[in-house]
Amino acid sequence: MNTSYSYEIYANTAQLPKKWNDLAIKTIFLSKEYLEVLEKSAPKNMTCHFIGIFENQELIGIALSQFLDLNKLTSFGERDKCIKTYVRNFLLKNFSSHVLIIGNNMLTGQNAYYFSKKNNETEALKTLQLASEQLKKDFKSAGKKIHITIFKDFFTDDFKKFNIPAFKNYNQFSTQPNMVFEIKENWKSEQDYIDNLSKKYRDQYKRARKKSNDIHKQKMHLDDIIKHEEEINKMYHHVAKNAPFNTFFLSKNHFRIFKAILKDKFLFYGYFLDEKLIGFNTLIKNGEVLDTYFLGYDDKVQRDKMLYLNMLYDMVAYSINKNFKEIIFSRTALEIKSSIGAKPEKMFGLLAHTNPLINKFFIKIFHSLEPETIWHERNPFKE
User: Fold this and answer.
1) pLDDT tens, 289-337?
2) Which residue in 9, 1, 2, 136 sits closest to 61, CA to CA?
């Protein structure tokens, strides 16, 4: 290894180098402010560390790691009750419960690291891999042996850069795609988007909007979030527990902390029926990109009022009105997101199990136990 490259691991944001945010300009999710949100309100089974990569004492790279202790979860998600799910959960609990992630398990996309353009990227990646090895040693010293190390989520071009000897023991994997919605340049208003829909999907839009006529949408400030924290937490947990698979649950104060630190870059919208909060969604401004975050709703109202679909349309309208280039819709509810115009983008990761024998077969075993998601891609726009 080029000895001019080194790393430092930080346990809290107060330790970060002064120039940290100079490298966080490409993504808010590596900024000191966002990392402070994680520091103060990460899920109870998650421990975050922040990694600085240096060349001759100059900070040239920043990265995020998250340690997950799956033993602290009472549920991985309660929607799927098939035998595959029980076996998978048993294997995770007993052979893979301590997971080290280089990246962000709470988001979809390349939020693992950023390197300055003037560095040797191969050397920087090798140094990041060494930092992950050091973290494994540190956790082992604390009595927590890491079972699995994951580098996640990379588009094809970034993923090719990992084809170096430092990662030869890692298995390549791909999970569900990231749903990305591109804002067309000629859309200046929500009506332009509606006009671009084919008749079938324009009718879907009208039907959804008609169903939600009596719902009042409100931008919620910090005081509002605190006031409704109990209902927000219940609705978030309802949606999270009905997901096919979870490795964490947000802490109760997460949205409050997020709003207090990120302020206007974190948007929280409440949906009210007869003055009662019946749903919410959250968005994060990330430069020219709008990232969707967590949401929740009252299931009875959601079905009757097509609330989730209306939330998606609201996100599209907001992004057009505020001149964003794209929306990151992440990797859940693929078909309904496809029906409003989001497109799947394949993402890749690297995974290694500490046990060499298990490592050899782990990807094959896990994929065979993963409940299959069957969905049909839609094209809602006129040909």
Assistant:
1) 999 999 999 988 999 999 999 999 999 999 999 999 999 999 889 999 9
2) 9
Q: Within a domain: residue 299?
A: yes
Asked, for residue 376, whether it belongs to a domain, the answer is no
Question: In sequence order, what E strands does 103-226 have?
Answer: 113-115, 148-154, 171-174, 178-182, 216-219
> How many domains is the chain partitioned into structurally?
2
Give the C-alpha separation, 166 to 109, whole Å: 22
The enclosing domain of 189 has a CATH number of: 3.40.630.30
Domain coverage including residue 271: 179-345
Sign of the alpha-carbon torsion through 202, 203, 208, 209: positive
Q: Let me know whether 167 and 18 are in one domain.
A: yes
Helices (H) and strands (E) in the chain, counts: 13, 15
End-to-end Cα, the chain, rounded Å: 53
Model pLDDT for residues 150-202, shown as the tens digit of each residue: 999 999 899 999 999 999 999 999 888 999 999 999 999 999 999 999 999 99
Question: Sheet harboring 178-182: ordered strands across?
Answer: 216-219, 266-273, 276-286, 289-297, 326-328, 178-182, 343-345
Measured distance CA(64)–CA(21) in Å, rounded: 13
Q: Which residues contact 2 (CB under 8 A, 6 or more apart)?
A: 120, 123
Q: Which residues of 24-41 are buried (b: 16+ CB within 10 A; e: fewer)?
A: beebbbbbbbbbbbbbbb
Answer whether residue 375 is part of any domain. Answer: no
